[in-house]
């Protein structure tokens, strides 16, 4: 049975790319003035989204100090050797990496997290984009000396869609180092073909599934927050932007959900959250 959520997306005669599951990750990060986005699903088939993202990056400037991308930056990622590929989406990946690399010299750090679409982003992409890889989940401390610090759990969010059992089994497989190594040892063209087939099965499966099964469950959210010892979470994945307020173990708790981006749709959509004046504030494109 194909997973109802999006499949992880994604050598030639050269050695296979490094296994992303073994890449160093940050489990904790201190952020001064971050902007959070996720689920951009960049691809050559969405030229307006790609152009808007490039303009968005060009417009980032202090006091913004960090750009944090919580997964699914790309519609799919077949492996870091695609950075040197000749497919249209390979060119998109290289151009996005180069655009992100312009931020650190301007004083803006870049952090990325694996999503379900781009779980194969690896060290070559990180090096080219000058980005740092966040663990999923990771704990972030927000605020500089002028703000009261706030801690929250950062995650892509798909791990907490626990009612979708086939997807959770697939998620575990896709993040297994042995599975990734085997997949990345295949020719790039073959990987692209397999990814396209998986995406088609995924979309077909979603049409037959109740929408609540593809959403996070309150029990999984509560369990993750208890494990981390926190009362706040920020994630993407579900494409259901909101600020949820609830009670966890007798105390106020919060869950922010980031919007997805599609500037080629009608109506166009996109946005994120930024830490400003001691609070998380939503913005739209």
What does the model show?
- By secondary structure, this protein is of the alpha/beta class.
- The protein has one domain: 4-Layer Sandwich (Purple Acid Phosphatase, chain A, domain 2), CATH 3.60.21.
- The chain is built from 7 helices and 11 strands.
- The chain has helices at residues 47-59, 88-100, 123-129, 165-174, 177-184, 188-207, 218-228, and strands at residues 26-31, 34-37, 66-69, 109-113, 131-142, 150-155, 232-235, 242-248, 251-257, 271-276, 279-284.
- Strands 1, 2, 3, 4, 5, 6, 7, 8, 9, 10 and 11 form an 11-stranded mixed beta sheet that branches.
- Strand 10 and strand 11 form a beta hairpin.
- It is globular.
- It starts with 25 loop residues before the first strand and ends with a strand.
- Residues 6-13 have low confidence and may be disordered.
Short précis:
By secondary structure, the protein is an alpha/beta fold.
Radius of gyration (CA) equals 18 Å
Give the name of the CATH architecture: 4-Layer Sandwich
Secondary structure tally: strands: 11
Large-scale geometry: globular
- Category from helices, strands and their pairing: alpha/beta
Low-confidence stretches: 6-13
What is the name of the CATH topology?
Answer: Purple Acid Phosphatase, chain A, domain 2
Query: Mind telling me the CATH class?
Result: Alpha Beta
Helix share, percent: 25-40%
Mean pLDDT: 92
Distinctive features:
285 residues, alpha/beta, Purple Acid Phosphatase, chain A, domain 2, 11-stranded mixed β-sheet, 7 helices, 24% strand, globular
